[in-house]
Amino acid sequence: MPIRGPIRKAVIPAAGLGTRFLPATKAVPKEMLPVVDTPAIQLVVEEAVAAGLTDVLMVSGRTKRALEDHFDRVIELELALEAKGDTERLRKVQESTHLGDVHYVRQGDPKGLGHAVLVAAEHVGNEPFAVLLGDDLIDHRDPLLKQMVQVQEERGGNVIALMEVPHEQISMYGCAAIKGPPGDDGVVEITELVEKPPVDEAPSDLAIIGRYVLSPTIFEVLRTTPPGRGGEIQLTDAMAAMIGREPLHGVVFRGRRYDTGDRLDYLKTVVKLASERDDLGPQLLAWLREWLPQQG
Ligand code: G1P
């Protein structure tokens, strides 16, 4: 039996090569690309901490150093800002250092998301834990992970975040079939999971978005999960193999989600979030209104 108690560990896979953003990602990990002025990875760690997860494990690769540096102190920069009396920037520099307890492990030979999660087995041990994928950003005003943690604590097993997507896009995601319509709380029982099904074979338009709260049994299952779609060890396949053995629930998310997985979505995310900010929004929107009509 998994150890029960408050869930406190989060795993963030961060070993992807970020090829869609080359050459920016030749020497800089894609997780460090700024969303306005904050690296995407910091927003993900902040989300984990806000959900009560204070122990964060990054599963990284060659990109480890920049990530580690970002969550560490930079004494000379702090001293320089302090000497100038620039408390606002000093606060920004120190923000990422005071987040949870961040640990690192390397994935080595990356063999898919399931493999990345398996690499976390030793650190996580025999307790439920969360997985957050950095390509999906969830708006902090629409807390999703906290609810997922509660659902796992009440019902056990695996809990995944789902979102309805346009039918033609479902083949880009893991897809879930559910029992009955979601209630007001969005919680559903999942009957089937398929990784990136062809559009005409998809059992629904409910896509897995990158938030999971998992039972530690997943490690045992991942150890024997054969490579699936794309020749990679898929987390979706391992969760599917656990159906009937442990509960599997989804939380259908109806809040704001931003995609940073490819260049166009990334640009849209940056513009959207910058336009909502007090320090940049009014000027950015005024400029966009003036500039857009000139584009024909
Ligand atoms: C991964 C998962 C997929 C999920 C997606 C969410 O795919 O394998 O099930 O829907 O994340 O972003 P990836 O986008 O890494 O190919």
How is this fold's topology laid out?
Elements: E1 9-14, E2 34-35, E3 38-39, H1 40-50, E4 55-60, H2 64-70, H3 75-84, H4 87-95, E5 101-106, H5 113-119, H6 121-124, E6 129-132, E7 136-138, H7 145-155, E8 158-164, E9 174-179, E10 187-195, E11 206-214, H8 217-222, H9 235-241, E12 248-252, E13 257-259, H10 263-275, H11 281-291
Parallel strand pairs: 1-4, 1-6, 4-5, 8-12
Antiparallel strand pairs: 2-3, 6-11, 7-13, 8-11, 9-10, 10-12
Helix pairs in contact: 3-4, 5-9, 10-11
The structure holds 1-O-phosphono-alpha-D-glucopyranose.
1-O-phosphono-alpha-D-glucopyranose binds at residues 113, 133, 135-136, 173-174, 195, 207-210, 234-236.
Overall mean pLDDT: 92
Number of strands: 13
Q: Number of helix segments?
A: 11
Bound molecules: 1-O-phosphono-alpha-D-glucopyranose
The N- and C-terminal alpha carbons lie at a distance of: 63 Å
Radius of gyration: 20 Å
Instruction: Please state how the strands of the largest beta sheet are arranged side by side.
Output: 5-4-1-6-11-8-12-10-9
- H/E series: EEEHEHHHEHHEEHEEEEHHEEHH
The CATH class of the largest domain, by name, is Alpha Beta
What does it look like?
The protein is α/β, with parallel strands linked by helices and 296 residues long. It folds into two domains: 9-261, Spore Coat Polysaccharide Biosynthesis Protein SpsA, Chain A; 262-296, no CATH class. Helices cover 32% and strands 23% of the residues. The chain has helices at residues 40-50, 64-70, 75-84, 87-95, 113-119, 121-124, 145-155, 217-222, 235-241, 263-275, 281-291; strands spanning 9-14, 34-35, 38-39, 55-60, 101-106, 129-132, 136-138, 158-164, 174-179, 187-195, 206-214, 248-252, 257-259. The strands form three sheets. It has a nine-stranded mixed β-sheet with strand order 5-4-1-6-11-8-12-10-9, with helices on both faces. Strands 2-3 form a two-stranded antiparallel sheet. A two-stranded antiparallel sheet has the order 7-13. Strand 9 (174-179) and strand 10 form a beta hairpin. Helix 3 (75-84) packs antiparallel against helix 4 (87-95), helix 5 (113-119) packs across helix 9 and helix 10 (263-275) packs across helix 11. The radius of gyration is 20 Å and the shape is globular. 1-O-phosphono-alpha-D-glucopyranose binds at residues 113, 133, 135-136, 173-174, 195, 207-210, 234-236.
